[in-house]
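Submission checklist for the structure archive. All mandatory fields must be present; incomplete records are returned to the submitter.

[x] Identifier: CIB1 protein
[x] Organism: Casuarius casuarius
[x] Residue count: 161
[x] Sequence attached
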Amino acid sequence: AYKRFSELLPAGEKENARSVRLPKSRILTLPELRANPFQHRICRVFSTSEDRDDSMSFEDFLDMLSVFSDSATSEIKSCYAFRIFDFDEDGTLDKKDLENLVNCLTGQSEESRLSSAEMEQLIQNILEESDIDKDGTINLSEFQHVISRSPDFARYCPPVW
């Protein structure tokens, strides 16, 4: 992990890898993130930058690699997946978060974008399946409950590598 982190640093900063922050633009060059539809959210969630520039320290980078490793538990993966999918960072997945999630998965082009009616129906179906307390949002425990019924979740989510 340290070798991968330091290889992404600009040439003059490699010797200070433990104390320097890796710019988001460099993080996004990782093959695992390059084509990932959630690449910007992943950087946001794992970055501890006070400037909110989504840069990462070595510790942030290590946290990201740990969560996406095969040895991370489903509970840890689901917590981070929830945070990645919570676009407005309010602690719940509401209709807008779900719409953003669907748009990330289907793409933004005209031919792949869902119609308004299709999007509304899909979000309604997701909420019917997941919103146990019927408050119109999905909280972390509801998300984890749905995930617990998906045996492939730990292998494929968060959808990174």
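[x] Structure attached
Curator remark: The radius of gyration is 17 Å. The mean pLDDT is 91.
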